[in-house]
Write a structure and sequence with these properties.
The chain is an alpha/beta fold. Helices cover 49% and strands 12% of the residues. Helix 3 runs parallel beside helix 5 and helix 5 packs parallel to helix 6. The radius of gyration is 15 Å and the shape is globular. 39% of the residues are buried.
Length: 194
């Protein structure tokens, strides 16, 4: 199994003193009959438009005709700073999911987590839009915004850093949400594999 994760610096675990990020923590708790290969393709500050332009070529180089290829789309908050409309963000994700579906690549989507308090409402709207796109296509979606927006440990982790990137505890919380929101079912594994 090859699991390709496309996303921004949050997918890469930037700011995590252990260097694992949420992807490393999820990989460590994903027990498959044959060990899975996790490949993270991250571009800092990447919008959904930029991700949509590159994912197929970059992921295609890592997929193998002899493997069970899987795609994780890890969406960040860069669309807000890039001035993209919610409609454009929705369309960008829809295009990625539709192309992956046409190539028969099972896909899993992880939404943007909370960041600056001033952006909370906009991130909530973005997350809800992404969730709707994924749900309409029956693609698993992990809402990281709603459960973390008022979580004291998440907010403390952000405040201890630059206000945008979580530290060790924050990445652990994202990993927990991924592992407990359909991850094992998506991989065809029993839930007790966590």
């Amino acid at each position: 199994m090859r699991v390709v994760v496309v996303g921004d610096e949050l997918a890469a675990g930037a700011g995590d003193p252990k260097g694992l990020g949420w992807v490393g923590r999820v990989a460590a708790r994903t027990h498959t009959p044959t060990p899975a290969t996790f490949l993270t393709l991250a571009v800092p500050g990447e919008s959904s438009s930029a991700l949509g332009s590159r994912w197929e070529d970059e992921a295609g180089r890592r997929f193998s005709s002899e493997a069970d290829n899987r795609l994780v789309v890890a969406l960040g908050r860069a669309d807000l700073g890039a001035g993209l409309s919610i409609a454009r963000s929705r369309l960008n994700l829809a295009n990625v999911l539709d192309v992956a579906d046409s190539r028969r690549i099972p896909t899993f989507v992880v939404g943007p987590p909370p960041g600056r308090a001033a952006d909370a409402e906009r991130i909530a709207d973005l997350s809800a839009a992404y969730a709707d796109v994924a749900n309409r296509r029956r693609v698993p979606y992990v809402d990281t915004f709603t459960p973390l927006a008022t979580h004291e440990q998440w907010l403390g982790d952000l405040a201890a850093g630059d206000g945008l990137l979580p530290g060790q505890a924050g990445y652990g919380m994202i990993a927990w949400l991924v592992l407990h929101t359909g991850w094992h079912a998506w991989l065809g594994l029993p839930d007790d594999a966590a």
